[in-house]
Amino acid sequence: MDISYNWLKEYVNFDLDPSQVETILTSIGLEIEGSETREEIPGGLAGVVVAEVLTCIPHPDSDHLHITTVNAGEGEPLQVVCGAPNVAAGKKVMLATLGTTLTFSDGTELKMKKSKIRGVESFGMLCAEDELGIGESHDGIMILDEGAVPGTPAKEYLHLKEDTVFTIGLTANRIDAASHIGVARDLSAYLKYNGLGGEMKYPSVDSFDSLYTCDRNESCCADKSAIEVCVKAANAAPRYSGLTIRGVKVGQSPDWLKARLLSVGQRPINSVVDITNFILQEMGQPMHAFDADKIKGGKVVVDFCADGTKFTTLDGVERSLSSADLMICNESEPMCIAGVFGGQESGVTTDTVNIFLESAYFNPVYVRKTSKRHTLKTDAAFHYERGCDPLVTVYALKRAALLVKEICGGVICGDIVDVISNREAVTPKRVEVNYARMESVIGKEIGADTIKGIMQSLEMKFVEESAEGALVEIPPYRVDVYRECDIIEDVLRIYGYNNIELPQNVKASINTGMKPDPEKVTRTASNFLSAAGFNEIMNNSLTKSDYYSKLKTLPVENCVMILNPLSNDLNAMRQTLLFNALEVVAYNVNRQISDLKLYEFGHVYFHDASKVVESDKEALKPYSEEQHLSIVISGNGTAGWRNRTSGGNFFTLKGYVDMLFARFGVSASNMEMVPAPVEIYSEGMTYMLNGKEVASLGEVAPARLKQAGLKQKVYFAEIKWDVLFKQIKKVKVLFKELPKYPEVKRDLALLVGKEVKYSDLYRSAFGCEKKLLRSVSLFDVYTGDKIPSDKKQYALSFVLRDDEKTLNDNVVESVMNKILKAFEFKFGAQLR
């Protein structure tokens, strides 16, 4: 939200510079995200000074150029070649000195440099109005008053203004501050409390009644009645106000109005539309102007249209309406999407003569749903969907009508139409407050008088009052204040959080948390991966459902769909972290960063339509949410002058996953390995424990890579963090001293059937010997010459150690024989 410093000063009395205002606004909760000083003319005419023409002679090689010498106020006179017909000795002019950058009225920029014009050196330029950007005239140079003093900066002579524009980072609840009057109210409250003045200056509309009385007898209104209003959707439009003005002349807005709008980034359109935009920026009330001659039947109807009704908006797009879209209609057709966007046919143009001004209070829920449904983000919708002031509609109409009369002429026809169809929605809220309780929450005894003073400066009215507290009526524009705690927050904003001293003693209750701490475990995993060279990524949980359209493992039917998506690329909640990871890889590869090691902690979401919703309490039963961890490796490695960094592969990825498990005392070897889904992985495996999937990893299938526009291989692992965490909770990782006694290593070369897996042998070995056996590893697999076609050879390495004594050969042989017999019995293994 952009707020102009100069514009702000029109509504509140203060004598503060922009930096002081910036500090105050931030301290009272209107955080200034940035500020920018803007000149009335780009560059502020820096380098342009008043000069006096001392001599002026014709140029010897031109019939229209003159060679002049000018006094620029200091130093030696300057020689300047000028082609203006009105240049003459003794004239006071504007001189652009060397190095000055001029912005012409048409936007062209020109930097002054020393130059030769037909052989004569020129040290600047004598400027016309359009060359200074202050007018359109180019008939000759700008001639100043005789009293102009040479050397005076143009900015000072022309009294050019500069403005500071604040960018306020509004929170969603503070829509009351999304206007200049809204910000002025808060600033005024702070200044009043601190004794710095700050009286509010609301724009006066007192002259409206007298103008209206005069207009009633005008001939253009004698035979034409005002536009009628009928509100059929009472809940969606609690208050609707309107006014008819006939005989207006629509054209360009005056300079002051254009300047106001441009100062906050609003593009001027025409005088009537600019007035409605001015009212929005001034007091936060959206307004809409209709061409009254295009309102068929002379009647405005506020109602819903049939589902599927076609309607063309101002941007020329034909839209299909929903039966839940509130519309402003005439007697036969819709004219405007209420609170969101106008229609192409009923808008005000330069040919418009009669207008109908709309100032309404629409139900925020209806506006927000319609805005989302049609993906229309407008200034009006921004205000309406957060909640406008229901009591300002008539005041805004009068203010707009006075501006229309001043700028466009015309006469007011009929009374202001003000239809209040839902009295409760426009009735100010009342809140009971207790001063002692407020001070308890504040943490400091600031006194009842201080609390009352701040509340009154915030325009809260005291309906009833006692020594202990009061019944307070909340200003209707404060849509975020419902409870006593909301008022406490407002009091603290103005009083100043920094004025609440920290107590010397802090009282707190000790709460025992979950062990192990989930956040601590997550941080440990993040630190482990970061230390291994991985970079953490964070992605949006919203994705496009097209990713799942051809998957059977993660069918699109299981996606949690968004009812009002911002776009088709963000129309579903993700079921896996894979597609986000591939998007990140593609983004980096497209920017010449191909070697990547990434990880992400994120949530995934599922919808199971097969689950039956039995009652309202079980309404969320078909939906589930899980936390996952993804690990990604991609790239071919990089070559250096000393060595080459190897790229990623399946076993590298598996090694990181196994090491991560081991870091938390969870052994991957105790899990069952089954093939991973081929539609996700071209080669991969899934870790299963007690029938539950813990993780899956492998090389991403080409079809998935194609979806992301990738050609290089990507190795991806996805860990179901919630499942893994349950295993982590069962294990207590302890540190112990290094073993004192040596390890003994033995190798076995076994001939086994092709169906036998290494994981089966691994579990069997540890099932036979749990005390002395420390590790089992596979270091060779052989098939081929001298090996039967239905067999393969495994070469296994076994490490044994006794923590209490040194192992002797008899014990070692006994253990190895036991393991070998188990292999022979269970798997038909033969010793080679």
Describe this protein's structure.
Helix content is about 25%, strand content about 25%. The model is unreliable at about 615-620 (pLDDT under 50). It has about 850 residues and is an alpha+beta fold. The longest helix is centred in the last third of the chain and has 19 residues, at about 810-825. The protein has a 7-stranded mixed beta sheet, sandwiched between helices. Strands 5-4-3-6-11 form a 5-stranded antiparallel beta sheet. Helix 5 packs antiparallel against helix 14 (about 450-455), helix 8 (about 255-265) packs across helix 9 and helix 9 runs antiparallel to helix 12. The radius of gyration is 39 Å and the shape is extended. It is built from 22 helices and 39 strands. A hairpin with a 3-residue loop joins strand 25 (about 460-465) and strand 26.
Task: List low-confidence stretches.
Answer: 614-620
User: Looking across the biggest beta sheet, what order are the strands in?
Assistant: 27-30-31-35-34-33-32
Overall mean confidence score, pLDDT: 90
**What is the general shape?**
extended
The amount of beta strand, in percent, is 25-35%
- Count of alpha/pi helices: 22
Rg over CA atoms, rounded to whole Å, is: 39 Å
Which structural class should the secondary elements be placed in? Answer: alpha+beta
Largest sheet: 7 strands, mixed
**Residues in helices, as a percent range:** 25-40%
**Terminal Cα span:** 80 Å
Please count the beta strands (DSSP E, at least 2 residues each).
39
